[in-house]
Amino acid sequence: MQEEIIRAEKFNTLAGLAASIAHEVRNPLTVVKGFLQLMKEDDKSTNQQYFSLVLNELGRAENIINDYLSFAKPELKSVENVKLLETVQEIQALLQPYAIKEGVHLNELHDIEEGLLVKADRNQLKQALINFVKNAIEATPNGGNVSLIVQQTGNMVTVHISDTGKGMNKEELSRIGSLFYTTKDKGTGLGTMVSIRIIEAMAGMVTFKSKELVGTTVSVSLPVQKEPATIHSINDKKKEAM
Ligand code: ADP
Ligand code: MG
Questions:
Q1: Residues 6 or more apart in contact with residue 197 via CB below 8 angstroms
Q2: Ligand nearest to the backbone CA of 172
Q3: Which of 23, 41, 115, 147 is the most exposed place for a label (fewest CB within 10 A)?
Q4: Which atom of ligand 1 sits closest to the CA of residue 176?
């Protein structure tokens, strides 16, 4: 009985949160629709100003949806053995155009085996790392560096996302990852919170080190997955049976 009540309460909170975020998303979309309507009616080329407004609002909606998507479904859906290095290198390639646009050098360094595995939901792990790397790029001024450093220590493997950006003071550092905390004009304050939840759901851990005007290092640690010997034996048995 008691358990049911707790569950219902959890559901209400999540549903309420989803509703308020849906509302947040609807506002910029309504603005976009309105301007598109105006552009349709007025065919003359005074439309330039509308275009930037439209793109701005679309970008805002996109940010909220991107940051919120995983938060709405925090449970791990398809857990599999994922090659960590491959994933990190994919993210580097994916965010390289963004880094170039922001004038930031994005590089990758590792001293782990190519095939090292972690147990993860591939897409959610990607989403979490992308959020951290995007934050690093956004915090770093033109000409600065963001480094993805992958290292193994015993049973854990860590991706350090290290930037030479603006850094955070003690107060800012204590607030990072709390719901809706953002210092950006078009920020959502969801990315870090969502990402920490994803990593913790994978039995991992996230730590932050920062120094104002020097930079920040976000360290994402995950347990190393041992090569599953059982899969071979199951396959062998299958073969024998056939
Ligand atoms: P958002 O990026 O939408 O602001 P996040 O939850 O991703 O939301 O980040 C929250 C805040 O934490 C940011 O607005 C920024 O002030 C701070 N922050 C996050 N990562 C870094 C970083 N690498 N360097 C400095 N500040 C950061
Ligand atoms: Mg962010």
A1: 70, 71, 74
A2: 1
A3: 41
A4: 12
